[in-house]
Write a structure and sequence with these properties.
Aspartate Aminotransferase, domain 1, 2 domains, seven-stranded mixed β-sheet, four-stranded mixed β-sheet, globular
Length: 481
Amino acid sequence: MSNQTMAATVGEQIKQDPAIASAIETIVERVRAHSEQITDIRPPNADLKVSYDELLDRAGRVKGRALLYPTLSSGVGNGPLVEMADGSVKWDMITGIGVHFLGHSHPEVIRAQAVAAIEDTTKHGNLQSGFGAYEFGEKLIAHASKNSRLKHAFITTSGAMANESALKVCYQKHYPASRVLAFKHCFMGRSVTMCQIGDSHAGREGIPLSTQVDYMPFWNDVAVEKVGGPTKFIDHCVWRLQQYIDRYPKMHACFIFELVQGEGGFNTANRDFLRALMECCKANNIAVWDDEIQSFGRTERMFAYEMYDLGEYVDVFCVGKMTQACATLFTEEYNPKPGLLSGTFTGASADFTVGSRLLDILGSGDYYGPDGLFARHHKAFREQVRSLMERHPDWFPEASFTGELVGGVGGMMRFTPFGGEKAKVAKLSRVAYDEGVIMFYCGHGPYHARVLPPLPAMDIADWPRVFSVIEKAMARVASEG
């Protein structure tokens, strides 16, 4: 045994073991060989129906109610295609509300998960951790700091916990300020505090309200036109923000900016609008908190604040979903006192290995920019929707309170069929699932069909195949009234 080998830790010896490395590559290749059998959608296998129904029933008993979708994966897929435990295969156009951005059975994901599996523990946390969490944080900060002042990262287990940590940082910095500002139609998560900030009655029904929130209008093309143009709309919103500030002097700890709204309807904004509100916050010592848990990585830049060129204003930032591990980033000025941020768990080993690999992939591919892959995918998506609208104009009556019937940006895609009526849009999601496309809805009236596809794993040529299924589903919904 060489001196170099003897000097290494046993853990490092395991990582460098040629036999283990070869075994991992064998796993990757065997999974690839199996997953490549999946090339198109297919209906359920009748021989598996009884066992699958039993699994769904058991899952429902555990949860206390039936699953929203009858979705139990077999554990394999091929890029944008996923196999269910009943043998059916579907186009996955929602990816766990945006979690599985690299698609299914991606070789790099399988490899990263296998590497994580050789570690001695599954979970890492405050008192027991390898370096994986910090390596993930380093990479995230390296990307984030290119066009912002963000300098530190606290790694945690969910988007809601990342938001809770961000709120604690803002509260501590601006103590005794106790109020928060947020946009109408925002979504912040499912914790007690975050569901109070999120602008959804159903998300907080029966929850005692203890968090003081003041809501601001989000950019809305119809409202902009009604008030006489962008300048008047921006001036009105700044005036309204100042009214809140004057009503509660020095009592706002932060303004939560969801730069591209997710659950609220995949709504995008005007840069001058966002900048004017951020400048007002800066003038009044209110933290600018950028929540990109759903939008990160999907817009025409890696960060939405880069797309809008607003990084200089951001004090606190949250990321999650596609990154597997979740994080709260903050500037040096917002670095909290010891003890404020901690936790038993920061995440599992695979969260960090997969999350780090995803950051490497996003940072090295031709994904971003006005001519990048994500922009090209978005263009192809819009073309498919407009083609549907031309062939079936009766499926697309004008929706109230909305502008374009197709919208979003990059990998955040939505269209508005059936006048944005919730019952019909929700039904479309269920029928599309039966036909072979997994999608969902968003918005609060009008409601939109929502698509969060695994763009790095998709071909542009996949879009007509996906929409041929969606068209069948829409025809069924339309014919059934």
